[in-house]
Amino acid sequence: MSTLLLLTLTGFGLGAMYFLIASGLSLIYGLMGVLNFAHGAFISVGAYATWWTEAHLFSGVHSEVLRFLLAALMGLVIGGVFAALVELVLIRPLYNRHIDQVLVTVGLQLAFVALLVGIWGPDAKSFVVPPWLHETTTVAGARIPNDRWVEIATAAVVLGLLQLFLRKTRYGLIIRAGVENRSMVQALGIDVRKAFTLVFAIGGIAAAVAGVLSGVYFNVVGPDQGTSLLIFAFIVVVIGGLGSIGGSAVAAMVVALTQQYTNYYASSGIGDMVVVLLLGVVLLARPRGFAGAVVGARA
Amino acid sequence: MTRRALAGNWIVPLCVFGALAVVPELHVTIPKLFDQSISSPGTLQLLGACVLYGALALTYDLQFGYTGLLSFGHALYIAIGVYLSNIAITDWHWHFWKAVLFTMGVAFVLAIVLGFVSLRVGGIAFAMVTLAFAQAGAVLALKDPHHWTHGEEGLGADYTKLPHAFVGIFNTKNLYWLALAFLALVFFVVRWSVESSPGRVWQAIRENEQRVEVLGMRPHLFKLQAFVLSSTLAAAGGIVYMLLYSGSSLDVTQPNFTLTLLLMVVIGGAGSRWGAVLGGILYWYLHDRLIAVGSSSTVNGLPHALRTPLEQPLFLLGAIFILIVFFLPGGIAGIAARGRPSGLRRLQESIRPEPSLTAPQEDA
Question: Which of A54, B93, B264, B347 could connect to B280 by a Cys-Cys bridge, CB 3.0–4.6 Å?
Answer without folding.
Answer: B264
